[in-house]
Amino acid sequence: MRKLQCTLVLLVASCAHQGLVPATPYGRSADLNSSYEAKGAGGVAVATQGRYATDAAFEILRRGGNIVDAAVAVSMVQAVERPHSTGLGGGGFVLWGKKTAAGGKVEAWDFRERAPLAAHSKMFIDLKSGKAVPELSRYGRLASGVPGMVAGLYEFHRANGKLPWKELLSPAIRLAQDGFEVNPELASALEGKSDILGANAAARAIFFHPREPRVLKEGERLVQSDLASTLKVIAGEGKDTFYKGSIAKKILEEARLSRLLITRSDLHRYKVKLRPVLQSEFRGSTIYSMPPPSSGGVHLLQILNTVERAPLEKWGILDSRSVHLVASAMQQAFADRAQFLGDPDFVKVPVAELISKEYAYSVQEKIPLDRARPVSEVRAAPFRAPVESDDTIHFSIMDSEGNAVSSTQTINGHFGSGIVVRGTGILLNNEMDDFAASLSGANLFGAVASSRANFVEPGKTPLSSMSPTLVEKEGRFVMALGSPSGTRILTCVTQVLLNRLVFGLSPAQSVAQIRYHQQWQPDQIQVDEPGFPAELKGRLEKLGHKVDTTNLGCRVQLVERDTESSSLTAVSDIRAEGSARVER
Ligand code: GLY
Hints:
Layout (H helix, E strand, L loop, with lengths): L2 E2 L3 H10 L19 E4 L3 E5 L3 H11 L4 H15 L9 E10 L2 E9 L22 H5 L10 H12 L4 H4 L1 H9 L1 E2 L2 H9 L1 H5 L2 H7 L13 E2 L2 H13 L2 H4 L2 H13 L5 H5 L4 E3 L2 E5 L2 E5 L6 H12 L4 H4 L4 H21 L10 H4 L2 H10 L26 E7 L4 E7 L9 E2 L4 E2 L41 E5 L2 E7 L5 H14 L5 H6 L3 E2 L7 E4 L5 H9 L4 E4 L6 E5 L6 E5 L6 E5 L1
Helix pairs in contact: 2-3, 3-5, 3-7, 7-11, 15-17, 15-19, 15-20
Glycine binds next to loops.
């Protein structure tokens, strides 16, 4: 098996050569064995936020699996190597691009968490003050939605996989059982949430040093024996054990002891949903992305459409006119998000209108080129509504035949709710924080609501920003990409698309390029640190933008296929842990 990879050092060098602004790899492992960009003449391209996950993908492919099988193995290994980001207690989305005789067919799989039946719109409000209490939706007993990960992966595999289900879990079982050395990123997440983890005995038993009162440190071994046993049961019995069988029993016992809202009927009625894929033409390419209950695809397409007619390539990538226009388009998109977006099974979302060229062009005409608009001036679209890290994970896989998987999965904030289901190693999500608790508060990612569209209701799916995305050209999938980091996901993915499709940067440059984010409220452009040019910051401030320097948390995982040569490229964001590989 041939393996082609370039090192982190080469990637930085090539970016510097182009005169661009490469992001400093502040989160990366000191061990440079994992590569961040790879190219190859064919085979399969994989980009993930881990090294064991990428290894697992190729282990399964070598055994004769297809990329769906590889995607399941990657998801399960990421649940073990990134317990702060994703896991069996969470959920996610997959965009599956399948090559057919007629071209390509795309499916959007929704296995996000659902609100328990006992959930209600006032559950995060302090009755005395009438104000939302953010801690209630972020930590502890009320924070978790009904997990969809196991059902989603199982059904996605049942419909499209090749190898037997139980074979796919073996790399994850091995890793959980044998353990691995805590890397810098996981060490930092553990440190950041040591109080939450320390407060839960089952979490403490996993993530704390066995003899010292502290979380595991970089270089120490994380073994997850209970999780290994749980994975073995799921490998043998499939999804039913999680929703009706022995794992369900343990979840319900935890619900009783910790007074969680999740009941037997919540587990029984959990359903994976196939959603209508969003699609729009953009400068000669077809972009496919995730529909509601994600806001990601809607606003990604809306922003692209808004800037489509502007001479961005003439202005240049880090020109204040380009950044001003793109950031102003983001601002409008987030005003619309706050008003209209929610679970389409509960509220009618004007999707067609929001992603229409007509609306986008009208928005472009209203954006003054000589000044920033304050929040008060940016109103949601006048549509009649008929009647929301650095956590989360994304991986992308593409084969030389033109099949593609783009999947974003999460337990929301680092270590989710902080509650581990006793005896299972499963950390429960805190996805309930992605609902709007009130019209005055903001969630973990600062997202606000201007309507009740994303208020909590029993069985409802919390609004997401996860944006697994595919790009098709001449009837063939050419790109699969996505990222973690809450509301920033959709703007980071949008910028990588602009870097690639408009500014003509290479795949690696497109991912490494400095990024920015505007989400209407707070009224500021957040620019990724470090490396945003001071001169550009000054120009934007002159236009009236407030500019805040921050770590946006996006870690874009991109795979590409060249239509002529069928050669493949994989890029894993240089900013943090991850690996990219192409093998045949
Ligand atoms: N929990 C992050 C998202 O779904 O966007």
